[in-house]
């Protein structure tokens, strides 16, 4: 099974309004990197919602990890969601938990013991450069720190599919480059990535990625490229690839 | 790192600042009312049982003929006949001054007046296994004393037991209503909790938490609320009941409330009931959370 995501003639409308997504067909292979672009209001967030299973389409076929999900029983969905990491545009960190607990959360939900989950969360936080902010609440963190926290939470379970909604919206170009490097490493470890972004600079940093363009609810694929070529190593804020916690095979 | 050592715990949901702070107190009041209702129900039943078993084992024979030698003979004959009957444990004549004393609360001083005719009263106590029929015996003693009549307290006992059953039904009705009100309050409180934690729950849901994982957080929290409230309410309620029992005892053995007593099963019920309320609280919260989460995809 190498196709991670498959959409066929998917349409989405809210209520009785016009379709916000029309005849969307595409597929994402295992370990591939894709950008999703398009003007505001083109339906990028709606498309991501379909992918992270917050929304069922009005029509069409969606397969995730080879399983048809449109008509799947509700009870079957949490198991699929656990294989998907999401970096929300507004981060959606839990305000009452510390940074460490936020990152440990997906592992706890997957049934990993508390001590083990916290240990991995610690490594993950160190790796994104937040070793000294572990017991801080999200509200006390800067925008960039929150972003890294959100990323740490999204990737700690080493997801098969990682979805990112404007992940560089709150960071300077240098940090954007570092984040892309992180994504590239995940990609190398077999995670399929779909990054929704307006940031042309970010897209330019990964010339071999596929770019999916969404406009007025319709999707077009821009010039091909399946894998992201290695880019220049980033600065020091992020640890090296060998130190990546999940490279040691941490999985729930 | 400190966080990793020891029995460190974190909850998926923040501590609620909504109506949950009040909830244990509301539950305490509910349980208090329930304990009082149940104690009242049980107390009335045990009291009336005490009275009626005493009453059912005694008759009062009245002889209405005018005072004089003739009546003395009638009384002697009736007593002789009654004491020979199998099942009669004892026969005593109520002395005239006692009979007059019984009338005094109603008639005042004049009850002592010799001009007031007082019937001869004979107390008949029956053995526990007596099978005598009061109507048959009445016919038999009329041959000795035509003006005699037997009061077997049947009518009064019937009214007493109807009254007791009514009070008991009322007590159970109160318990049922309070339980329903508790369910409603817990439902509202859980709904308030759900909406105040809406964002958190949605995030947990999107991260892949199953409904039961989220419901578990709520159900344990509400079980704790329920237990806290129940224990406070039960202690207050049982204390009140024990206090009433104490006061009843001080009224002396002749007081109506002296037979107001609880057996071990009654005390068990008073302990089990609050635990049941705590359990209802937990299950209601669980059910409310599951129903609300069912609306998410």
> Strand count, sense and closure of the main sheet of chain A?
6 strands, mixed
The structural domain count of chain B equals: 2
Strand content of chain B: 5-15%
| DSSP helical segment count of chain A | 7
Highlighted features:
heterodimer, A: 252 residues, alpha/beta, six-stranded mixed sheet, four-stranded antiparallel sheet, B: 297 residues, Alpha-Beta Plaits, 4 strands, 65% helix, 8% strand
In short:
The complex is a heterodimer of chains A (252) and B (297). Chain A has seven helices and ten strands.
SSE layout:
The complex is a heterodimer of chains A (about 250) and B (about 300).
Chain A: E1 3-13, E2 19-29, E3 33-37, H1 44-51, E4 59-64, E5 67-68, H2 77-81, E6 84-87, H3 99-109, H4 114-127, H5 143-155, E7 161-165, H6 173-188, E8 192-196, H7 200-205, E9 210-215, E10 218-221
Helix pairs in contact in A: 3-4, 3-5
Chain B: H1 23-56, E1 58-63, H2 69-84, E2 88-94, H3 96-107, E3 120-126, H4 134-142, E4 148-151, H5 154-196, H6 198-207, H7 211-250, H8 264-293
Antiparallel strand pairs in B: 1-3, 1-4, 2-3
Helix pairs in contact in B: 1-5, 1-7, 1-8, 5-8, 7-8
């Amino acid at each position: 099974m190498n196709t991670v995501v498959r959409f066929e003639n998917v349409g989405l409308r809210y209520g009785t309004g016009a379709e916000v997504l029309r005849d969307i067909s595409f597929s994402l292979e295992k370990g591939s990197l894709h950008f999703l672009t398009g003007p505001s209001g083109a339906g990028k967030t709606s498309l991501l919602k379909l992918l992270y299973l917050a929304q069922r389409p009005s029509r069409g076929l969606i397969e995730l990890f080879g399983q048809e999900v449109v008509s799947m029983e509700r009870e079957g969905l949490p198991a699929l969601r656990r294989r998907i990491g999401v970096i929300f545009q507004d981060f959606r960190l839990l305000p009452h938990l510390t940074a460490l607990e936020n990152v440990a959360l997906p592992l706890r939900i997957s049934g990993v013991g508390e001590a083990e989950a916290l240990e991995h969360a610690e490594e993950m936080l160190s790796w994104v450069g937040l070793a000294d902010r572990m017991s801080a609440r999200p509200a006390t963190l800067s925008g960039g720190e929150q972003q890294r926290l959100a990323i740490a939470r999204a990737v700690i379970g080493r997801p098969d599919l990682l979805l990112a909604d404007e992940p560089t919206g709150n960071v300077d170009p240098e940090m954007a480059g570092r984040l892309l490097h992180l994504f590239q490493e995940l990609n190398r470890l077999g995670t399929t990535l779909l990054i929704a972004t307006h940031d042309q600079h970010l897209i330019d940093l990964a010339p071999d990625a596929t770019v999916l363009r969404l406009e007025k609810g319709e999707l077009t694929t821009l010039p091909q490229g399946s894998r992201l070529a290695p880019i220049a190593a980033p600065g020091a804020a992020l640890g090296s690839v060998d130190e990546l916690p999940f490279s040691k095979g941490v999985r729930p | 790192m400190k966080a990793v050592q020891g029995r460190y715990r974190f909850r998926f949901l923040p501590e609620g600042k909504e109506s949950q702070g009040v909830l244990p107190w509301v539950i305490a009041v509910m349980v208090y009312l329930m304990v009082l209702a149940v104690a009242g129900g049980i107390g009335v039943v045990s009291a009336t049982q005490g009275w009626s078993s005493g009453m059912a084992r005694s008759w009062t024979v009245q002889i209405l003929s005018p005072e004089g030698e003739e009546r003395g003979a009638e009384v002697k004959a009736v007593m002789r006949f009654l004491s020979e009957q199998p099942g009669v444990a004892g026969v005593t004549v109520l002395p005239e001054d006692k009979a007059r004393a019984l009338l005094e609360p109603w008639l005042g001083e004049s009850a002592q007046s010799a001009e007031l005719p007082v019937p001869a009263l004979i107390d008949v106590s029956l053995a526990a296994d007596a099978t005598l029929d009061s109507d048959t015996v009445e016919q038999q003693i009329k041959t000795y004393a035509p003006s005699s009549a037997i009061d077997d307290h049947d009518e009064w006992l019937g009214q007493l037991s109807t009254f007791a059953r009514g009070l008991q039904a009322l007590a159970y009705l109160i318990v049922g209503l309070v339980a329903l009100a508790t369910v409603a309050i817990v439902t509202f409180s859980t709904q308030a909790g759900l909406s105040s934690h809406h964002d958190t729950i949605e995030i947990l849901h999107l991260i892949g938490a199953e409904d039961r994982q989220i419901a578990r957080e709520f159900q344990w929290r509400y079980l704790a609320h329920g237990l806290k409230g129940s224990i406070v309410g039960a202690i207050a309620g049982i204390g009140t009941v024990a206090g009433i029992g104490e006061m009843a005892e001080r009224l002396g053995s002749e007081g109506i409330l002296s037979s107001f007593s609880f057996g071990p099963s009654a005390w068990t019920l008073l302990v089990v009931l609050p635990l049941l309320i705590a359990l209802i609280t937990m299950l209601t919260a669980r059910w409310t959370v599951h129903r609300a989460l069912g609306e998410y995809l």
